[in-house]
Structure prediction request, 311 residues.
Amino acid sequence: MGESFQKLNLTNAYLFAAAMQDEEICRNVLEIALNKRISRVKAHVEQVLFLDSEFKSVRFDVYASDEEEVSYDVEMQNDDTKNLPKRCRYYQAELDVTSLRPGEDYQQLKPGYIIFICSFDPFGKGRCQYVFEEYCKEADIPLGDETQKIFFNTNGTDTENVTPELLHLFEYLKQSTEEVAVRHQDEKILKIHERVKYLKRDRKLEAGYMTMEEYIHQEAERRAKLMAESMAESMAESMAESMAKSMAESMAESMAASRVAQNILALLEDLGTLPDQTKERIAKEQNEDVLSAWLKLAARADSIEEFQSKM
Prediction:
């Protein structure tokens, strides 16, 4: 089961994207990251469920533009997928296609930043940031296409050309607590923390996170089921194939039901103390439709009593 929503840090892509939808928070993060003044931004989040072979990754792209018509694509990255340079190329193409209208001259293309905030070192040099621009190899002449690809390493040790405020942001991203937020009394960090506290009280946002986590676990269990069925087929010589498949399906269904039951209990813990009898009833339930209905009810309920009366 994934980490509790209440304990998430801002390195979590889901929570980070939710916070960045607040345009003031988005502006503060960009100002700290780029060390420049930004008067105003418009931001929106485009969610793409991007699952790797082990179901570890979820991508939430944050797109923003400012009053100077500069475009920003920001993503929190926790898994080293080994493809970030090519993804930068693709994301820049996406920004360019959407910013140039039919018939407009190429000079109308907006300046663009592709920004990855990584919880690992993408290039293995220990730096806190890696900034890439297009240059001529022979004459060191800038191409002048007004694009930058920036990779931040929140665990970097080489702090050359890095502001203290950026290092504080890295601290807060990794440990989004009151203690870290107030440590250096940075006004922007404090504003970000107030927003994070507000988001963690949002029951709908928590339910969305748990639904996403449940989907990822279901996909993992589906893969486990396929593997179990494959094993059952190879064991067909020593036992009846139908019996082996039945066992695999039963195990997978039991695992899925147990996962949903855990999510229901986690939501209800926020509402108060749940009677043992109700806990036992939830834990023993195997019907997927019933568990799904209870999960939605737990996300909407305002009290244990309300949940019990409607379950």
Observations:
- Residues 203-310 form one domain.
- The CA atoms of residues 301 and 307 lie 6 Å apart.
